[in-house]
Amino acid sequence: MALDFRQTRIELLLRSQNADGGWGYFAGRQSWLEPTCYSLLALHTLEEGKTATERGWKFLRARQRPSGGFSPNALVPDACWATSLCVTLHAVRGEFDAGWKLGVEWLLASEGAEGTWLERAINLVRPLPVEYDRRFKGWPWLPGTSSWVEPTAHAIVALKKVPPHSAISARAQKRIEEAERMLMDRRSTDGGWNYGNRRVLKTNLPSYPETTGIALTGLQGSKRWNLQSAVDAARKEWPQTQSSLAKAWLAIALRNAGDTLPAPEPLAPGNDLMAAALEAMACPQGGHQWLTAG
Amino acid sequence: MADGGLRLTRREFYPVAALAVGAACSRKPRLPLSPPGNSAVFVAKAASYAAELERPIEEGLRACGLDVRGKNVLLKPNLVEFDASTSINTHTAVIAAAFAVFTKVGAATVRIAEGPGHRRDTLFLAEQAGYRHGIAQWEKLFIDLNRDDVSAVRGFAGRGEFFFPNAALDADLIVSLAKMKTHHWAGATLSMKNFFGLVPGAVYGWPKNILHHIGIANSIVALNKTFRKTFAIVDGIVGMEGNGPIQGTPKQSGVLIMGADLPAVDATCCRIMGIDPLQLEYMRLAAELGHIEESRIEQRGENALSVRAPFTLIKEFQHVRLA
């Protein structure tokens, strides 16, 4: 019998959930917010995942700090970028409660530490070696550090799910607009994105397929930007990359852009639970749809 | 003083004197007090990656008096990105040889671990770099330090708590299997800078931008203060010159440099590369951890002068060129 690509990933996730309700990056290891969020998105609405989902949700909610941000695991106290994934999950589950609102407020208060007035003034006099427009800020991995592509894309997804009638919608829109500008400004000349530097010391830096998929996921639904060449870059990369993570992110982005992709090769999952969750999400109606705008 | 000579008022004298003292200091940087004694650094010639590498590595361990019997050893290569046209990462042959030697000389366990700073898919990156095919039982041996379990350490770079992977904290010895490269921010990336890969991306992101906010030189030294049970083997068989650590060009140097004093190893690498280590900020700060002055380094194996192969430096680092 042919191996069911998505089902094997779902089964792996179900049997690898930790006793605390979270998932590790690998089975039997410490639970982390990031693989837990992707696992919950992959299992969302699946009947067989109902119990696991509720246990995972409790783990996630326990990570919220009084500041509203979420910490990456039970040992690390400081809130981090993965707050975006938690805010997205709240919206996917329709839980626009106090926890969601606190999370959104934390995101709205968080921004990259780069582009201070001094840095911008120096850049005017003598261009800095890392070339980007310092007026546009996105989100950092950790408070107090600079904006990068991946946390920015995830924050945009989370804020695009803020209901348009809510009190914070206008503020969310403002941050989305600026962050989309930031992503477009940091795009590599080959059409995709790397971690967030397009040009350093007058040298163009190449994109990475996984980051291209993530950035496109953040930008999907945008009316302001023509993303055709970025989508074309993703279409070119998807059949070529041998990275399971990159393949999954590209497929998520392309399916959300309306592409119909051929079924993935029937390979068994590896031991990387985050990759397995993303691979499941990348299947038709496998959870990629939870990352679309609105 | 004769007419026409330079006359300074007291108010004018002090700033001029301060500038003169500053200029004098910049010629010969003031270094923190180094540990007592001298340090051994072993230099071996290795013409290519096809050459016999186990023998020189074993000789290096012996020459530096390293005893690993019964210890849990963690080999930490430099795996950053992959580009087939250049020489970014520690070569598979060096890792495989080090693994064989540490196993042979009695280490209880030998694991290989890395946490790349840019790419999320570490296992795929290792595959691209040839590690999976070049090292037997790769999957069983390798730990992704970006996504390992973590524990808190207090006092890193003056911070209350900082998190590190348990694989690194639990090791009895971390071997920095670094690559000999120029670095466009630090001047050079060698055995000490290689410890950036010990910082977990799962906590600090990709890139580990917090280290840049702390300061690259400060972070290099803080990491090497945190991890003291270390040894270095620098892959200088083919290094990288110019716009390193990623976009430079390959540089055939044909050497392996080893030692237990990482600042001494890096200082020796710098001199081989034609860089004055005293001109690199991180090296000056590292003088409190080890020896960077030539007179305090006992050269073993090949004479470092005989293998000197000056690396091309970008214009921002021309001032560090060894006279």
Would you give an account of this structure?
The complex is a heterodimer of chains A (294) and B (323). Chain A has helices at residues 5-15, 33-43, 50-62, 83-92, 98-109, 117-125, 149-160, 169-185, 209-219, 228-240, 244-256, 273-281; strands at residues 199-200, 203-204. Chain A is an all-alpha fold and 294 residues long. Chain A has a single domain (5-259, 268-283), classed as Glycosyltransferase. Chain A has a two-stranded antiparallel sheet. Chain A starts with a helix and ends in a 13-residue tail after the last helix. Chain B has a single domain, classed as Rossmann fold (3-Layer(aba) Sandwich), CATH 3.40.50. The model of chain B is unreliable at 1-25 (pLDDT under 50). Chain B is globular. Chain B has helices spanning 10-27, 54-63, 92-104, 122-128, 131-134, 138-141, 166-170, 201-204, 209-214, 216-226, 262-273, 281-286, and strands spanning 39-45, 72-77, 109-114, 142-144, 150-154, 161-165, 173-183, 187-189, 230-241, 249-259, 297-301. Chain B is of the alpha/beta class. In chain B, a hairpin with a 6-residue loop joins strand 5 and strand 6. Helix content of chain B is 31%, strand content 23%. Chain B starts with 9 loop residues before the first helix and ends in a 22-residue tail after the last strand. Chains A and B meet through helix 11 of A and helix 4, strand 5, helix 8 and helix 9 of B.
Summarize the structure.
The complex is a heterodimer of chains A (294) and B (323). Helix content of chain A is 48%, strand content 1%.
Radius of gyration of chain A: 19 Å
Strand content of chain A: under 5%
Kindly report how far apart the N and C termini of chain B lie: 37 Å
Mean pLDDT of chain B: 92
Name the helicity range of chain B.
25-40%
Structural class of chain A: mainly alpha
- The CATH class assignment of chain A is Mainly Alpha
* Helix content bin of chain A: 40-55%
Strand runs of chain A, count = 2
